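Tutorial, part two.
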Amino acid sequence: MATPHSCCPLAALSGLEQIAMEAHLNRISLICSVNRALWEEVGPSLRVVAAKDDEGIIRLRFFIDGEPSQEDLESASSAAAEVIADFPEHELDDKVVRLDAPERVQVTADWQIVFMRREPG
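Running the prediction step on this input gives:
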């Protein structure tokens, strides 16, 4: 016989465990959304894409090698629009950041690296 917890595993978790599990699932959803949004939008100058869900604000950073071209800006804007469409209850904060190789991209642990190109060294 099925118990209430066997049909709904989250119900078996404590309040803190549920919050942690929901945060984990939200992080996975964000990573998948950004990954899909990047399809056919990754150009040769794109080095890294980082994402973060910051209390109702989806933050995206597109790190570009060299001066961002109009095509780079349009691709980042298109990808950001695809992501925010998946999270209509959120606001969007997206930025294109010039960061020339070989300078290393630095993000804090609360950011998710969704894309990183292969670079020498």
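Helices lie at 4-7, 15-37, 70-86. In part three we will examine how such features are distributed along the chain.
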